[in-house]
Amino acid sequence: MVSKPPLDPRNDGSEDGMTSEPISKAISDVVIRAIAEKKGCEPANLTPPLYDVLDPDALDAMYGRSSPRTVFEYAGYQVTIHPNESITVIDTSR
Length: 94
Description:
The chain has helices at residues 27-39, 56-65; strands spanning 70-74, 77-81, 87-91. It is of the alpha+beta class.
């Protein structure tokens, strides 16, 4: 399988605050890095930790076997993981 190069997880400049990044490693890590970048903090400083919201191992296992569309809320953002192996992060406080 050919992996896609990672894109910069920072805001792409759109007014809606969306960010997309190909999944090139564990999806839970990609989600954590994207949210940390949006919040302007280190991934280790995110509160609550992702594991308080969902099971990161289960998320990684699910995307290791298939490519569903998954939507959940985490740290004030709506996270959508798309079947095309990208994520969208939208600030829900707007």
